[in-house]
Amino acid sequence: MSQTRFKDKVIFMCGVFFAYDKNLDIEKAKKSLDLMYHRGPDGYRSIQGSNYFLGHRRLSIIDTSDRGFQPFVSEDEKTEVAVNGEIYNYKEIRGELEECGAKFSSQSDSEVILHAYCHWGVDRMLEKIDGMYGVVIHDRESGKIVFFIDRYGVKPLFYQVDGACSKVIVSSEIASLKNYSSDLVVDETAIFDYLVYRYVPYPKSIYVNVFKASPGQVVEINLSTFDVNKRFYWEMSNEKASINVDENKSTIERLIRDSMELQVVSDVPLGFYLSGGVDSSCLLCSARELNLDPRAISLDFVGSEKSERDFVDEFCDKLDHNNLDIMTIEPQDTNHVLGEIVKKMGEPIGDDSVIPTYLLNKKAKDKVTVAIGGDGGDELFCGYSRYKILAPGVTAGKLLFLAKHYIKHFRSKFLCAFRYDERWERYTHLLGGMPASKVYRDYRNLFPNLESNYDPYWHYKRHYEKSDGVKDYMRLDFKTFLPGLIFCKVDFASMLNSVEVRVPFMDRTIVEYAFSRYDEKSKRDYGTKTLLVEYLYRKTGLDFTKRKKRGFGLPGPKYYQDGNSENVFHVRVLKDWLEYNV
């Protein structure tokens, strides 16, 4: 076993690449790791044997010294670990491990994974850790590779198992995997899925026989037989607890505060992305209650109705928070950006907010290395207006209410959803995807070999559980849309700029609380995030219920490369991606 390490100038996320191959091409493996330079510009370290390579590119967040370099290796050299992401409760776990006799060589949160696996095994370790992570463990003693991502799919891993060629590849990015396995073939069913969902749903990837690790699932591969064992280490509970409104109010404040205390730990500059919406505003408010004065970074679409600058200024004034940077975006800033970033996508991402998300991280990089984002709040606290449509028992009066309040701004999404009789076609339309009937009609040439009995809504059906009306769709969004599109987009756009974005709402206690709470008030207020809105009103006196939800997509035609926002964005991305990659 040999090791190499290089540390260049300190810039500061991480990329992991593992290859097991009886005909190991070490230069290809090194090149695959180098392709993830943007995920870890601080430096790299790799371990290699006669038939395997484990490499890690480093973006230093906690313990920026040389001792924090990965992969970490156990004292007996039988276990090697590489981690992408952060373990938020690592100090608590480290204390338990030290009581068990573990000896640490660094202050890194990632070293906790090595000792937890060696002392407790994978199952007990996974019960304990909380964070956002993609972990690869090479267990040399048992002759297996073990890997997994976090419970909610914030961080990605892609993998390929080719028993015929005695080869296993695991990578943080699909482009690095493709570099090593250059004969990959685009999957026609994945193209179809992408057009329906706007993303390629896990466990598929855009390529045949290349897979995404599923949220909350651990994968073990025997490196002699190439047998694959997969099991879920976390699944969302459907249990409901009856909690009164006053108890809800105090509980959510405490849970957000506890999550913030864990997630603001960093040895490098940290900031808050402030959109003017409920979720990011709650997080900054909580940080101020912790007596923190973080840099808040907001994006202003110049000359657009979607500009939230006035409200961001008002909110910060109410918090007495002066540490605010407004980063402006003008129409010319977005010209040609789509073509630039599509070339760098491992697989297509069909959300037009990928452009402002990319530009936000690009502009913020000079200020911060770690950013706090509000993603996940809509799925946890019923924030999407579409839940009003999906709620059971929609009456004529309710439809009239929707028409009065949404026809001007949402006519193309909400009211047009009723064109579709079939439930999953309507749901797909509400999420901005393309109902399968339209995909078959307009884009059949892109998947000529698709079987006639292919189920276009397999991903929804696999994860849908009927139990509690609108919360069924909240859970479905949480399991599909959130990891498949939102977290994928954020990871891509932030990592491309070497910025780590943390998501405090994805704290385990917050997630499990949000889906277990049950009270009549929350049941009525679909689409309003009542708990969070009331929290902000108590702290600032601002009434967020009077503000329209604006989202983070491009504001209008002049911000699009061709000046036409009516084109289906995710179709344009797919066509460009196929041109670059096929």
Summarize this structure as a short list of keywords or feature phrases.
3 domains, Rossmann fold, Glutamine Phosphoribosylpyrophosphate, subunit 1, domain 1, 6-stranded antiparallel sheet, 7-stranded antiparallel sheet, alpha+beta, 24 helices, disordered N terminus, 582 residues
What does this structure look like?
This protein has 582 residues and is an alpha+beta fold. 39% of the residues lie in helices and 18% in strands. It has a seven-stranded antiparallel sheet with strand order 1-3-4-2-10-9-11, with helices on one face. It has a six-stranded antiparallel sheet with strand order 5-6-7-8-12-13, with helices on one face. The radius of gyration is 23 Å and the shape is globular. The model is unreliable at 2-12 (pLDDT under 50).
